[in-house]
């Protein structure tokens, strides 16, 4: 399985029929079961019947994937990440780490060609939903300042900004254990930890007319004195809620807020704020995210507007991950331009199902 084959299928990220998506997923599973050490061992031990899994609708297929015991544990990507690399894979591979904000870092590899397809999806979605192509052009340059960890995030966001002809400042910091500091010691301790980031951010804002930022909710106050120039505010993290966006809209009246859901193994999903919900749509079929409800010793896909555990399938030529995260999400229907189900309001609080 190579990206040359994938690109033929992915000429329009918003128009891929369900049967093509199912066939793509089957091809990826077959490839990794044959060529990837971890998945080859799983298939050999359990005798997975792909014919029975990939019968029926996409929803039925996803349910069968999770009910076949294919979900990996978090430690696999912390201790055994090389087992997920296909033998003799030819491509421009780079290993990335998770941010480490909530626990020990995991590792995952990306083929650079995936970055191209991810940015293609992000750019199309941002233009369709938020009309960024009408805001930033030859007569009005995008000037971005981004907060975040090194790795996939830096590469993805750089390519995205450059696609608009923009320039960017990337102000990074060490993020390992940051959430624990925030939870145990509060925002003041976290801000002390982030003092270099705050200092460099303020220097840039005082010298340059930044019109797009990406940051976390907890750092938005830094930008209040410079809000007049900010046209676009991208926010990520589970702290991004409808209530938070509504609160900050009073301070940043000239800004469009764009929620993003970032994950180190697939990048970003585009979010849309609709009433009491923030709905996210990942780059299907490379990433499928649906809520799972445990029921009678099995999992079922949640109904629309029902909450469940976060079921993630990341299926690409270079990597296959099936994982259940300790995070609750709500299943939501498609909204234009997306033609597949999304998820809403991710939260790590109250996980009990």
Number of DSSP-assigned strands: 14
Low-confidence stretches: none
N/C terminus separation = 36 Å
The top-level CATH class of the largest domain is Alpha Beta
Kindly report the spatial arrangement of strands forming the biggest sheet. 4-3-5-6-7-8-9-14-13-12-10-11
- As for the number of domains, it is 2
CATH architecture classification name of the largest domain: 3-Layer(aba) Sandwich
Gyration radius, to the nearest Å? 20 Å
Strand content: 25-35%
- What percent of the residues sit in helical stretches (DSSP H or I)? 25-40%
Class derived from helix and strand content:
alpha/beta
The CATH topology name of the largest domain reads Rossmann fold
What does this structure look like?
It is a single chain. By secondary structure, this protein is α/β, with parallel strands linked by helices. It has helices at residues 3-9, 18-35, 37-46, 50-53, 58-66, 74-79, 112-130, 132-135, 152-163, 178-185, 187-193, 195-207, 242-249, and strands spanning 93-97, 107-111, 143-148, 167-172, 212-215, 232-236, 256-263, 267-274, 277-281, 287-295, 298-301, 307-316, 319-332, 342-347. It folds into 2 domains: 3-88 and 284-347, no CATH class; 113-274, Rossmann fold. The protein has 13 helices and 14 strands. A 12-stranded mixed β-sheet has the order 4-3-5-6-7-8-9-14-13-12-10-11, sandwiched between helices. A two-stranded antiparallel sheet has the order 1-2. The mean pLDDT is 92.
């Amino acid at each position: 399985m190579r990206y040359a084959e994938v690109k033929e299928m992915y000429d329009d990220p918003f128009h891929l029929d369900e049967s093509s998506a199912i066939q793509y997923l089957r091809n990826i599973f077959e490839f990794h079961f044959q060529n990837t050490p971890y998945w080859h061992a799983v298939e050999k031990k359990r005798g997975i019947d792909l014919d029975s899994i990939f019968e029926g609708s996409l929803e039925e297929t996803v349910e069968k994937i999770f009910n076949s015991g294919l979900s990996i544990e978090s430690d696999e990507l912390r201790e055994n990440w090389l087992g997920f690399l296909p033998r003799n894979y030819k491509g421009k591979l780079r290993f990335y780490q998770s941010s480490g904000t909530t626990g020990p870092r995991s590792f995952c590899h990306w083929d650079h060609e995936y970055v191209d397809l991810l940015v293609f999806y992000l750019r199309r979605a941002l233009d369709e939903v938020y009309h960024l192509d009408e805001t930033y052009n030859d007569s009005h340059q995008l000037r971005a300042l981004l907060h975040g960890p090194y790795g996939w995030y830096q590469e993805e966001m750089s390519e995205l900004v450059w696609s608009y002809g923009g320039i960017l400042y990337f102000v990074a910091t060490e993020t390992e254990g940051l959430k624990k500091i925030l939870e145990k010691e509060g925002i003041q301790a976290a801000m002390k930890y982030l003092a270099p980031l705050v200092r460099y951010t303020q220097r840039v804002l005082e010298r340059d007319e930044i019109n797009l930022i990406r940051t976390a909710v907890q750092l938005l106050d830094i930008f209040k004195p410079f809000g007049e120039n900010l046209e676009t505010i991208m926010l990520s993290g589970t702290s991004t809620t409808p209530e938070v966006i509504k609160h900050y809209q009073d301070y940043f009246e000239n800004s469009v807020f764009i929620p993003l859901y970032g994950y180190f193994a697939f990048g970003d999903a585009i979010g849309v704020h609709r009433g009491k919900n923030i709905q996210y749509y990942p780059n299907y079929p490379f990433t499928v995210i649906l809520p799972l409800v445990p029921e009678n010793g099995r999992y079922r896909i949640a109904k629309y507007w029902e909450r469940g555990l976060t079921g993630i399938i990341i299926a690409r030529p270079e990597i296959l991950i099936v994982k259940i995260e300790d995070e609750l999400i709500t299943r939501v229907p498609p909204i234009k331009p997306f033609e597949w189900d999304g998820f809403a309001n991710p939260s790590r609080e109250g996980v009990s199902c």
